[in-house]
Protein 1
Amino acid sequence: MTVVELDHATLTLGWRTVLADASLDIRAGEFIGVLGPNGAGKTTLMRAILGLLPPSAGAIRVFGRAPQRGDPAIGYLPQVRTVLPDLRVRGLDFIGASLNGQRWGLPSLTPRDRGMIEETLDAVGARDLARRQLADMSGGERQRLLLAQALIGQPKLLLLDEPLISLDARHQEVAIDVVRKTCRERGITVLFSAHELNQLLGTLDRVLYLGNGRAVLGTVDEVIAAPVLSRLYGTEIEVVRAAGHIFVMSRGRDVETSAHQHDHHHGDHGHEYHHH
Amino acid sequence: MFQYDFIQNAFAAAGIVAVVSGIVGYFLVMRGQTFAGHALSHIGFAGATGAGLIGLAPLWGLIGFTLAAGIAMGVLSERISNRDIAIGVVLSLALGFGLLFLHYYTSFATQATALLFGNVLAVDRATIATLAVLGVITLVALAAIMRPLIFASLQPELAEAKGVPLRLVSTAFLAVVALAVSECAQIVGVLLVFTLMVGPPAAAQRLTSGLWNGLALAATLALGEAWLGIAAAYYTDWPVSFCIAALSALGYFAALGAPAWRRSAERANQAA
């Protein structure tokens, strides 16, 4: 069964074409690693799947229909994460604010909501975060909290936008493990965007590589190949395999590590939020 | 001191306004939009003096201008409301206009100090009734948008994806702030709205966790500071607004020192 389908879809932001005439099918239960240089459209694609950006041409179908904003079957972990340093808010209340947060009126947390949050935190091994203050959590703990939040309500599709950013190597592995385990168990389809391919090699089913307005979906061997990537990067790319790792190089430099240094200027989704 | 009518009136008016300011201010601080609140009060000054020029009560000019400005800021939000410089330029312009209106309506000039720094001791019964009605409207409007407002403040990217109309929520909120600012300016004046709208909620956020605790403490602090300020002014003969501003600053700085003490207490608890 197809979960996400792009049918000659074109995505534009202002005058810029982020994705031109892309067609692909993502099947149920697949773990897709979404890769590509900065500004290639990873965030834009996810926003389109969420129904926040209608395609300017072609069609996008999610669960066989046009994307619907606020679809409860999609769990989302956005890349730009606003942090409010002075506010003392517990993990439970932070997630609680997102449950039915689109409804008008006063906030409330029913015992059922509370149980649901605690159960999901438990599933990602973070039960104690419910009572902890957000401001006192480490980057890894906060990420786990956000992941638990994305899993609430039994989504069938999970969009994780750069969930590894600001985590050290050990926490990155833990985060990938948690996602893999939970999603395999529940049969959730995952789009997991990242800068680094190697950590995902043992986990992903297929790679979606974006660049130069194009998208290529396929197995690692099909996609991570010099001719394919050279087209996506618009420059001569070499693919070097060594000790079970794959290095994507441009003129002798690793494109992934050099891209990583620009993380914080990543702004390919057309919005600017205040960072505090 | 309660044998005097004007003191009773001052306590009633300051009480209503402090509770409204503390609660609305809590969200202003949460969203990091305190400067926008400050700007709204300055724009209100132009409205109040302008109203005097055409023979209306200053309060209605204040409300009209702050509401219009709040809605405009909300609609232009992504372009303007988080840009400190744009807000600064607009607020200076508004103060300038206020001065111009005063210039053309010279008999109104005696009211300028009252507008800028407040004059709670001159509040009459009719004004108290108006403030009470406005206060109820403000809090009911805030209650109506509170849930999506909190979601949008904590996680705007996710809130948007989940179907929260971000711009509508932020515009409605700035309209609520505009009403609260207009009320607050009646007590402490347009230049000192921070004393009730920012000082107490900021202190409350440092001391509590949980929304309802925070709101309760913000309202209580604002109320306590306003009432203590009036009492202090009565006994010292200093201006009321100075006393409230001093108490507000004291409360905030005391709360700044609190987390260190609080953390060491938490650590001691965990160790035990």
Protein 2
Amino acid sequence: MSSVATASPAPAPAAGAPSRVHARRPSTLTAYLWELRKLVSQKRTYLGLFLAAILPLIFVLVQNLHAHRGHDQGNIFASHITQSGLATPVLMLLFLSVFMLPLIAALVAGDIVAAEDGNGTLKTILTRSVDRGQVFVAKALAAMTYATLAVFLSAAVATVAGVASWGFNHVVTFSGTVVSAPEGLLLVFAANAVYLIPLLAVVAIGVLLSTTTRNSAAAVVGTIGITILLFIVAQIPGIESIKPYLLTEQYENWHGLLRTPTDWTPIWHSAWVCALYAVPALVAGYLVFLRRDVAGG
Amino acid sequence: MNDAPPVRARGLVKRYKEILAVDHIDLNVQVGDVYGFLGPNGAGKTTTLRMALGLIMPTEGTVELFGRDPLREGAHALEGVAGFVEAPRFYPYLSAQKNLELLAALDGNGAKERIEEVLELVELTPRAGHRVGGFSHGMRQRLGIAAALLRRPRLLMLDEPATGLDPAGMRDMRALIRRLADEGITVLLSSHQLPEVQELCDRVAIVDRGRVVYEGALSDLRRQGGAGYRLRSTDDARALEVLRTQHGIEHVIGGPPTPHTMHGLSFQAQESDVGALSLALARAGIGILALTPELATLEDLFFRLTESGEAPQNGDEAGKGAQAVDVGAVA
């Protein structure tokens, strides 16, 4: 800055104070798109996506090496794994939905506010022309987008790897009905979409913890801790009456899609149960974010 | 347009449980001011700036920027306002260019078109494509100024902008601030660099332990320091005795060297009494090595106000009757 004082002219300020007429302000969409660009620019973003992609590949590789015939593991898709590549994404959703995908979702959801608070960039963006509410909505949507991407990336990799190994063949549903390959493919991705309902509730909890704890590690661990706690609670004998209302019990809501006829009951049930978790979490996070002191960094 | 002042704070209080960080602070920054905000570490300066920018909520009191309350009006209240609190913070994994693009997107109003211009202004154009994570502290300070100027501010709030800069960088930062002020931007400058404040600012607020101990024109404050003289003699100890018995000589400070004093004495006196003093010293056989008038420096006054706990009257009242301020130490 040796000659900064003689550099080109500074942006000329208008004389006097700003008028009461509000300038055109950026939209929440703009803030959201920048949240995505920030995620794309961070290496840690790719850790979760890497896990989402590599696990189906490992699964298919192991199956190819050691299990050329199907296994009867009490699951129809497991027993038909070598008969149709479309069984692979269903099995992967079954395996990853309980812990791995919530973990991947929590990695970003728990970090998205707390990290910026910790490194001080939150105060940088909160002194621009976007309101706090816009920033919170943009961050929550970005975390949800990431979780969605992770789920569909995992499904896509599992589908491609499964089809490449065992073909694009018809598949048998939980009800034992045979569905064509194209319909099976549609059901696979519909099942993943339905699984997003509880997963986005996990994201909402992660964003709440990220906002309130101001600590990325605490928020990520806390989010996973809550899901593990609920999972353990579900195993306790004698609480069958509350079990249908536990978030972790909704992880299997997509099974209804893979029955003939389609069983919508668990899907609708999970939708409102998950809303009971997600909406209060998002509202609480929003309100905390609006009023909180931002002094980090 | 509105006639509201750039910054108007009334009774600002911030309490963290048992700690009173800010204790009923009033601030009045007028259009065109280069306003120095001074105080020791922990005095409450940064907390006050955070409240002014709407980053933290006051426990009590209000602050308005051009008549708008950041707490009630959110981002609307920050229109025409820019700056940074503590060090400017950026995304280390993004380049300087991308950081400014992000901030410009969050500013709107054509800020993106000014990126090249502000980068040029702070001489970061050659590093625009480099990640901020590799920037030195000084480069980040300059990027902080660039980010602030993207908003075409009418009020620039800077917290220690020269911290971490080398001497040339500090000089250039001062020149930049002066130039921005000359172009009509009101500047609120929080700084520990007292010479910087003395050079740049026309009005100051000095805070100590959460309270404003002085607010007003810097010239008034220095005038309150009184007409001072500095004496170096062949025998300071005996000269001190002479000064103390001499009519019209007041507030004599001196004696053994302390961290803030070296050799010599300082005192306040009317010019007419100084002649008599020199004769008295000569009669006592004390040689005068130097007898020079001195106006209290900001540093003198700052230490006096923040270390003695003695508060002068505020500048707005100073014209009604000067109050002697003990100049204090001899530098």
Protein 3
Amino acid sequence: MKLNKNINQKNSIFKNWLVILVAILFIILPFIINAYWVDVLFFFGVYALLGLSLNIVLGEVGLFDLGHMGFMAIGAYTTAILNTTFGIPIIVLLPISAIAAGAFAWLVCSPIIHLRGDYLCIVTIGMGEIVRLTLNNNPFGITGGSNGVYGIDFPSLGSIFVIDNSTKFYYYIWLIVGLTIIGLVNLQRSRIGRAWNCIREDEIAAESTGIDVRYYKLLAFVLGAGLAGVGGNIYASKLMIVSPESFSFMESCMLFCIVLIGGMGSIPGVLIGAAAISLFPEVFRAFAQYRMLIFGVAMVIMMIFRPGGIWPRKRGAFEFKPLLMKPGEENG
Amino acid sequence: MAKDNNNMETIIRTKQENEGINKINKVVLQTDKLTKKFGGLIAVNNFDLKVSQGEISSLIGPNGAGKTTVFNVVTGIYKADGGKVIFKGEDLAGKKPHQIIKKGIARTFQNIRLFSNMTCLENVMAGQHCRSREGTWSSVLKTPGQKKEELEIKKNAENRLKQVGLWKWRDELAKNIAYGNQRMLEIGRALATNPDLLVLDEPSSGLNDKESEDLMDFLKEIIKDNLTILLIEHDMNVVMGISHWVTVMDEGKKIAEGLPEDIYSNPQVIEAYLGKDEEEKE
């Protein structure tokens, strides 16, 4: 038992050091790389945030959602429209975008939440496309059609601190990603996270174990959409323009790939997946025309050799340290 | 409501009474003219079942008799087409499975349904979901209340896991442990919900004789803890070995009920299992 405990401790110490190292790396990176790469890393951050939000729905609960960009679009357009027409500060719109996207998710997912697997997948594709087409058709003249909405402000705290350059945006997005990761890790280790995983494993058993399947599925959608709404807010204020083609079906597929590449339900996995999706095109810019070919081959090879993703979530010892066990008491 | 209470007070003969102890048990679960149809097939037909407090009741019958359907209606997975399910004086009509389990009926499945990619400890912890209440925000923020509850869940899970003898497998994924252990884990998960009534669907199927015997001892042990058990079983040794009361079902109807030794020699039951001996009659 003592030996066991030592291994656990070593594991968690190693893990803590890894987290600290990565955090330090992210803090000092903007000082060593040029502005172009800072921007690339900003978009890596956006993809990471969106990947984490989809991971709640797809990774934790196992619901196929191929219309996730629709939720981000709701968040981005909420920010864009309220900011340009009413001049509401972007920071104030951050929670409002999240709530708008979450409320939209609740509204459209309530009637379809009982669908399983592929059926849900088809419906979410339809939902994402409906959002995009609606924005494109300029309802009531508020979304600006295919031109989109432009002239969005930078996020600012009054006039003292304005996030107006790449480096500040870089810190802004990674601060939010960091906070999101802390929140999601806490969720994973709570009864909510367990309930989600149970639903993914076996819906009927989950229901018979006392988990309100419908409620927890909706909760996952609403939280995932809310986070995507936050992503939309930051994305809109960075680009200063939102237009429907940013939220295409292809982008939803990319998010899906992020979660699949990284490992379903694994937070470090999602970060790796987001890195792969966002950095890959930059690194391979020289072979631009073969990019999709290489990407496709890489996906196929990965699915054969690591079907669980690059960094699948490990369950076991260090997440649950023994509580009541006395030394020498190994068998139950 | 008053009428239902009267129903609950219905007193039935028990083994103890027979033995002269004169212990009178309350009916915990009762089905009243329960009917369930699948299209044109009547799977359960006006079925009455009574389960009394603190006893092990068995529901037996040939394959396709409708036993599992009764279980599924009782636990809320199917909706009854007629009749009532009354648990502790309360009609369970229209309740969803997760609400019924909160009332105190936990179940296991004929083909084991565990959360395969979660550890054994997590499986048992999941069982306590309905007895804990911390919400999303307190979990995200990890409030002191949430931490305390989580610790409580872990402690209870640890006790349950030790009770079913799987503590040393706590960090192993549920799909990786042996079949017999998986059965025990499923029972452990059901027990973790602190049920009043434990509904077991063929707990001994796939177990060898030694494992069945251990299971029987285990069930005899746990009913001392103010628990009631209803089980479906094919293994007659188990049924006759531990049941206080046996109900026999065939083609959706109740054909007999009584003490195990009476059922054993009941001609109707033998007929249902083995069929009429046509040649002998001619």
